[in-house]
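Problem: given the chain below (421 residues), write out its structure.
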Amino acid sequence: MKHVLLLLSMLCLVSLCPQDGAAQDWAQWRGPDANNHAATDIKLPFRWDVSTASDVAWRTRIPGRGHSTPIVVEDSIFLTTADVAKQTQSLLKLNRSDGRMMDQWVIHRGTLPERIHPHNSHASPSPAFDGTRIYVAFHTDDAIWVTALTTEGREVWQRKVSNFAPEAFQFGYGASPIIEDDLVIVAAEYDGEDSGLYALDSRTGKPVWKTARPKNLNFASPIVTTLSGRRQILLAGADKICAYNPRDGKELWSVDTATEAICGTVVWDDQQHIMVSGGNPKSGTWCVSGKGNHNVLWENPVQCYEQSLLAIPGYVFGAADNGVLYCWRTHDGTEMWKARLFGGGISASPLLVGDKIYIASEAGMIYVVAATPNRFDLLSENPSGDSIFATPVAIDDRLLIRTGIGVGDDRNEYLIAIGKK
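Solution.
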């Protein structure tokens, strides 16, 4: 049996990454294949010291604060930030090769929400790029706004997507916009009349369709993939896992499972097992079939609340809020192993790079674990600042880490590139 497990593990590692992994841009949340897998030819160190010049290609101080993951397109890096003192929400442009700050464009000024969750930021959604324009979404002026800009910072259009003024809890916003063909897809879910999933024309910003969602606080980013030969938007929350047609927003199917509030993005494996985890009011991880009658396949009580899961062929990994890392078999939910990494506190989602998983904790540690289903193998622990909330990105043989150094009023934010200069 041990030999069989080892063989399965080796076969699994051969096919971990997407076959279309040659793409070297990271154009939106969760990357080119929407699964948080780095390109197959990426080579990263798995041990480093941020205080050692030889391990750091560059570091750039980021004004303000944000939890958005950077996108990397053409010769630039783009990420959003917010400055509470100046009451601004901005898009930043950095040089891709050396990290130099190229520009900062203020998108909104003086309209930040009065209250958000202390673990959230006023710049949590990641930007998206469609090959021509950058799209950024902000919660500001009691609404969700999307702005389209050229890569040189010229505003093409700006659109108020919906009102967004939660009554029960003022926790802010976090859903990233997603590009699908000529559409910008945005989730704006809260306990109000405008709660919904929206699609805008990417060229003009004009509304194309709206699908109503329950009046329910939810924070998940939608994601688009192809299952059973059909493109579909996947979104969990409001006690359901749902799929929608990207062209018109009509519901394709839904399953009554999960919980009310979900922050993580839905994931899937090569056998179309669809999984998500959440934690309010019910904690758990759930799996449904992506084909046939879309029935519930399994669930367990493990809570991965703010972070998304990470799926590989036949298996899924979850970094739970309590600091325990799990590996489950996707077709039946069998726990392959679990191991404690840290004492709790995680917002960033695990990232697959080759046969390794990179996991950032809120305390600023990045753990590197072998992506093997038959055993837990911790390869390294790498202090990378004092706080990490944004998911790292692997690109150009470098790991981009958005990290905070210092605490309180002495906290400064940096984007650090680990790897070759």
